[in-house]
C-alpha cells in the first residue's frame, strides 16, 4: 500500500476522490516527486468519493458515493487499474463517512442528510450482505442554518470492538450502539456524550496508543474536546480551541472544522481549519492531554481532508473550495512546513492510497 517508486517521494498510488458537483470526474491519480505534483486521467466509475476505507483482509476499497440516494461502492485496485465490484445502498442520503470494525467483518456508514447510520455484515469475499441495519436519529440543535435535523457525520468502533459510535452534527451528540461483530448486529443507541449545544460534533478519533482517550472535532465552534472513555460512555476531560486566540493574533473570521488525525507514535494530533485555512498541530503527552503548538497555512481554501504519509514524512491536504491539493512536510518534531507544491484537481474532496 505504501511502496515507493524509486524516483518518487509519494506512494506509487495516491488518489484524489472528487465531487461531481465541483467538476470532478472520479478518482484522480496524484503522481509526484520531491519537486512537483501532477494529476492524471481519472477513473470515472467512482463518483462523489468523499470518503473511503481500505480492507487489508479483502483487498477492497469501500468508497461512499455522496449523493441523495446514497451508495457504497466496492473497488479493487491492481497494476492494471481500478475495478468496481458492485454498489449497495447506504440506507440513507448523502453518505459522508465509512468505517470497518477491527475484524473487518462489518462495514458501517454515516448518512449526513438523512441523519442515519447503516451497518452491513460482510461475506467471505468482503461483499456486503443485504439488507443493512439502519438506525435513524431524531432531534435538532440551536443553529438554524446547520442543525435543523440530525446529521450523522462520522462512524467508528470502540477499542474493544463491542461498541459502535456515531457523531451527529445536527443533534450535538455522540451515540453508542452495542455491536456484535460475529453476528453483525447493533442494539438500540444511547447517548454516549452530549456535546455543548450548537457545537456540531463532526469527527472523532481514538488515541492510537491509549484507546481510552478520544478526541472530538466540533465543526461549528472550532473546538477540540478531549474525552475519557469510561465503560462505553465518553466524558469531557478538556476543551481547546483549534484557532489562534488572544490579541493581536486571535482569529476573528468565520471558521469550521473538518478532518482530524494523529501520527502513529501518538504524540501529535492534527485538525484542519476551514476559514482560517490552516492545520492546527497539537502535542499529546503520555496521558493523551493536548497542547496547541502550531498553525501552518494549508495552502488552499477549505482544507476538507488530509492524508498523513508517515514513511514519506509528508501530508497531502485536499481543499474543497478552490479544488487545490497541496503537500506539507512533516518535520522531525511532528510540526508541519509548507513545500509550495500544489496541483488543481476539480471537485477535490478526499485522498486515499490505492
Structure explained in plain terms:
By secondary structure, this protein is mainly beta. It is 0% helix and 53% strand. It has no helices and 30 strands. It is globular, with a radius of gyration of 19 Å. The termini are close together.
Task: Provide key terms for this protein.
0% helix; five-stranded antiparallel beta sheet; 354 residues; mainly beta
Look at the structure and give the mean pLDDT.
94
Kindly state the percentage of residues in helix: under 10%
Please report the number of helical segments.
0
- Give the DSSP E fraction (strand runs of 2 or more residues): over 45%
Per DSSP E runs of 2 or more residues, the count of β-strands stands at 30
The unreliable regions are 1-8
Short description:
With 354 residues, the protein is mainly β. The protein contains no helices and 30 strands.
Topology:
Layout: E1 14-18, E2 28-29, E3 32-33, E4 36-37, E5 52-55, E6 60-65, E7 71-78, E8 81-89, E9 95-100, E10 106-111, E11 116-122, E12 128-136, E13 152-157, E14 163-168, E15 173-180, E16 185-186, E17 190-194, E18 201-206, E19 213-218, E20 223-230, E21 233-241, E22 256-262, E23 268-274, E24 278-284, E25 290-297, E26 303-309, E27 314-319, E28 324-330, E29 336-344, E30 348-353
Antiparallel strand pairs: 1-2, 1-30, 3-4, 5-6, 6-7, 7-8, 9-10, 10-11, 11-12, 13-14, 14-15, 15-16, 15-17, 18-19, 19-20, 20-21, 22-23, 23-24, 24-25, 26-27, 27-28, 28-29
Amino acid at each position: 500500500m505504501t511502496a515507493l517508486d524509486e524516483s518518487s517521494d509519494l506512494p506509487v498510488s495516491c488518489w484524489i476522490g472528487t465531487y461531481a458537483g465541483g467538476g470532478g470526474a472520479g478518482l484522480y491519480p496524484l503522481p509526484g516527486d520531491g519537486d512537483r505534483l501532477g494529476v492524471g486521467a481519472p477513473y470515472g466509475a467512482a463518483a462523489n468519493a468523499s470518503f473511503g476505507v481500505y480492507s487489508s483482509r479483502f483487498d477492497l476499497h469501500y468508497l461512499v458515493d455522496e449523493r441523495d440516494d446514497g451508495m457504497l461502492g466496492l473497488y479493487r485496485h491492481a497494476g492494471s487499474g481500478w475495478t468496481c465490484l458492485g454498489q449497495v445502498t447506504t440506507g440513507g442520503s448523502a453518505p459522508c463517512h465509512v468505517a470497518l470494525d477491527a475484524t473487518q467483518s462489518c462495514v458501517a456508514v454515516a448518512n449526513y442528510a438523512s441523519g442515519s447510520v447503516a451497518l452491513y455484515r460482510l461475506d467471505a469475499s468482503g461483499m456486503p450482505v443485504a439488507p443493512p441495519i439502519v438506525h435513524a436519529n431524531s432531534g435538532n440543535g440551536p443553529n438554524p442554518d446547520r442543525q435543523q435535523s440530525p446529521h450523522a457525520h462520522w462512524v467508528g468502533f470502540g477499542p474493544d470492538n463491542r461498541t459502535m459510535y456515531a457523531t451527529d452534527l445536527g443533534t450535538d451528540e455522540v451515540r453508542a450502539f452495542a455491536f456484535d461483530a460475529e453476528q453483525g448486529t447493533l442494539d438500540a443507541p444511547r447517548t454516549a456524550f452530549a456535546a455543548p449545544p450548537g457545537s456540531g460534533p463532526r469527527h472523532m478519533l481514538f488515541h492510537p496508543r491509549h484507546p481510552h482517550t478520544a478526541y472530538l472535532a466540533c465543526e461549528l465552534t472550532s473546538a477540540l474536546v478531549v474525552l475519557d472513555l469510561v465503560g462505553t460512555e465518553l466524558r469531557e476531560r478538556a476543551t481547546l480551541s483549534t484557532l489562534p486566540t488572544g490579541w493581536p493574533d486571535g482569529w476573528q473570521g468565520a471558521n469550521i472544522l473538518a478532518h482530524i488525525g494523529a501520527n502513529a507514535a501518538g504524540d501529535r494530533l492534527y485538525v484542519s481549519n476551514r476559514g482560517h485555512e490552516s492545520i492546527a498541530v497539537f502535542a499529546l503527552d503520555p496521558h493523551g492531554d493536548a497542547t496547541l503548538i502550531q498553525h501552518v497555512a494549508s495552502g488552499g481554501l477549505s482544507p476538507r481532508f488530509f492524508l498523513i504519509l508517515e514513511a514519506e514524512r509528508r501530508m497531502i491536504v485536499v481543499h474543497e473550495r478552490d479544488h487545490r491539493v497541496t503537500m506539507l512536510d512533516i518535520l522531525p518534531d511532528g510540526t508541519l512546513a509548507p513545500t509550495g507544491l500544489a496541483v488543481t484537481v476539480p471537485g477535490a474532496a478526499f485522498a486515499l492510497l490505492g
